[in-house]
Recover the amino acids of this structure.
């Protein structure tokens, strides 16, 4: 997979595939031509897409010739005459010949100087895998190997179906543990009393792909709202970074957990009591959320971990708190506590992808039309 958000992939990114001799792999495939409409072309295209969805996702690059050994050799592009019709055709194929339908399939068209184009077809890893190809009176399941697809064995299918039923719950359990950790469960410290945000960021393949990330003090991600005098604690699961412990309350303002399994947890205080009023401040939530997500994805990618990504968010300790929305206006008090704002799955986690979280934040306090500057 190209290490760039799909809508930001440029011609330079494609040219570098050839310049540096990038090889096909579990998340990358090169095709010289657009999938043909004949029997073999349809079957192979459906196998490619479902294989990526059933494994870890990936990019199919149309218009790049490989050298026979899977290495990008030449940027040839494709003729775009009739491309709109061809894209509708493959969309119909995915709708009618894949069960269940692949949840994330997007295409980016990149123009070349010679009038031809390169297509990047991005397939996301699926939480509802396995997906089967139902075509030509047959039903087949595929996975992605090192450079090609293969038909899944009976044992692999049993495992895939079992994982599909269990995977969403297991991923959410990772976040549930982070929420419990704010109270000090299996932690060297706890978050201060009051309203706090708890965020988990992980690659969607977190429970499918065994990994051991060498998080050290040098590469550990710092928590939101951090100040000087941070403490770092080495634990069995990774590196914990936390703000100074308050001598009176025994709590901390924020912490991060850099898990060796390749995912991250954050918790930070987003409000306090002031002269008897329970207040939450958007400036402690919205910009901190966007900043830490962007930096986390960048750091995980630098450590060789690819998306698509899943982010999960809970606000805890907010009951009875209000937002100061500007000009002294106070929102309604929150009454859902803790409040799970759900999960977002995205291949880049750009700030605009986090809008469901920021809008949900305001709705918790009775605001259905939040200020544009605070979402």
């Amino acid at each position: 997979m190209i290490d760039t958000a799909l809508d930001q992939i440029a011609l330079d990114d494609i040219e570098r595939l050839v310049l540096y001799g990038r090889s096909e792999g579990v998340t990358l495939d090169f095709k010289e031509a657009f999938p043909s409409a004949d029997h073999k072309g349809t079957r192979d295209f459906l196998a490619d897409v479902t294989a990526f969805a059933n494994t870890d996702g990936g990019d199919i690059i149309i218009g790049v010739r490989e050298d026979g050994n899977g290495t990008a050799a030449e940027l040839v592009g494709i003729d775009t005459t009739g491309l709109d019709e061809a894209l509708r055709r493959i969309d119909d194929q995915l709708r009618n010949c894949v069960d269940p339908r692949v949840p994330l399939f997007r295409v980016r068209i990149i123009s070349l100087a010679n009038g031809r184009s390169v297509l990047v077809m991005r397939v996301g890893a699926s939480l509802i895998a396995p997906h089967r190809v139902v075509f030509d009176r047959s039903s087949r399941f595929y996975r992605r190997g090192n450079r090609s697809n293969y038909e899944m064995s009976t044992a692999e299918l049993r495992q895939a179906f079992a994982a599909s039923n269990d995977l969403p719950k297991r991923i959410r359990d990772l976040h549930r543990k982070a929420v419990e950790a704010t109270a000090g469960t299996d932690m060297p410290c706890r978050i201060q009393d009051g309203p706090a945000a708890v965020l988990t960021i992980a690659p969607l393949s977190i429970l499918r792909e065994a990994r051991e990330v060498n998080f050290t003090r040098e590469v550990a991600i710092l928590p939101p709202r951090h100040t000087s005098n941070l403490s770092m604690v080495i634990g069995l699961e990774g590196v914990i970074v936390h703000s100074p412990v308050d001598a009176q309350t025994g709590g901390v303002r924020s912490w991060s957990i850099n898990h060796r399994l390749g995912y991250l947890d954050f918790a930070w205080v987003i409000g306090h009591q002031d002269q008897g009023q329970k207040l939450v401040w958007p400036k402690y939530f919205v910009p901190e959320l966007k900043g830490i997500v962007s930096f986390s994805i960048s750091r995980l990618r630098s450590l060789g971990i690819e998306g698509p990504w899943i982010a999960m968010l809970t606000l805890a300790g907010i009951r009875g708190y209000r937002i100061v929305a500007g000009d002294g206006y106070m929102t309604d008090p929150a009454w859902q506590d803790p409040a799970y704002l759900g999960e977002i799955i995205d291949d880049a986690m750009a700030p605009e992808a986090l809008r469901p979280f920021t809008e949900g934040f305001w709705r918790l306090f009775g605001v259905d039309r939040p200020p544009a500057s605070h979402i």
About this structure: The chain has two domains: 6-152, 167-374.
